[in-house]
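Allow me, if you will, to draw on your knowledge of protein folds for a short while. A protein sequence and the structure tokens that stand for its backbone fold form the material at issue. I would ask you to consider whether the tokens describe a fold that such a sequence might reasonably adopt. Thank you for your consideration; the sequence and its tokens are set out here:
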Amino acid sequence: MENQDILDFANMVFSMEYGSTDFEALYPKAYSRECCHIPVHHTIEEEGKIKALLDVYPVTLKLNGSDRSIRAAYIGTVSVHPKYRGKGYFTELMQRAEQDAVDNGFDLMLLDGNRHRYRYYGFEQAGVKCNFSMRISNLWHRCRELYPEKELFAPRYSFEEIDGESAYIPFLYTLYQRRAVTARTREQFFLCLKSGFAVTYAVLEGKRPVGYVNLSDDDKNILEFELEKSAYIPRMLCDFMDGMELEELGLSVGMDETEKIHQLEGASAYYSLSVSHQMKLLCPERVLDFLVSWRKFYDTRVINADAVKKLWRELKVPDMEKISLLTTPRCFMELQKGENGLLKGIPSDWLPLPFFLPDGDAF
């Protein structure tokens, strides 16, 4: 089946349910003309026409400064023609995708968000994201506490909308690579930032690029940002919201982004924790090793790997439940149960194992 036929089918099904949809524009990292060969397309056809589709986008997660990595099969663009639902096509496609992932040596399968229907197929909640509500009034108040008054008379930063040909891209990619875990090549970097019709702005200090801000299409959420000097995050956000005439913005970061959390927590109106992804383990040992190493990257209090593996062995629940328990807000709830909790006996300052990928890596 030709790629264009697959795209036409996905666009038709999603347009029927959610309004006009163009996957080539929505997810250029997977469906732009130069990239459309990358996803694995699983289809069910009748009389030469597609009736159901499920795509798998391969993602390699790399731990910063090491050769450690894991391979994820990211599930997306799940679509069944409305007239052919109830025939078990979705179940058949999920089974095919899993078998293909196993055959090709993937370590896990991933879904973004918290879609409950996928629990039926063995997926469990995985990962925490910290959601901040940023209001311009709170940010200015915080800036007055942090910076000398003379620094507040004029904007420190300016912002320039960029495209994939921008001369700033190589430097912005080096900022992205400072993350504890990365999932993009240099070629994919800007295509990922374009996902969901988001707009990217280079952050300039004078004429020099010092960061970037990836803003959602509706101007309501910063999907991703990096700044050379973390101490100036509140000021950068102030200047950005002022310049864009925005009173409030949402912003989500992973629990491994400790410097960002420190700056945002003191400047936000409020924040909450929620589930980042759903995960199905194909090679539990490799995934666990990777998450423990990820945690060590930013948290000096991390329990050593042997202790985590011992905890993993002793938990009286299936492996999939273990990953959910050790990587999501469930961990915090279990700790409150004391002797009656599944996690009894671990240190009181234990935090969940990390898992978070920005929206641009979703599929």
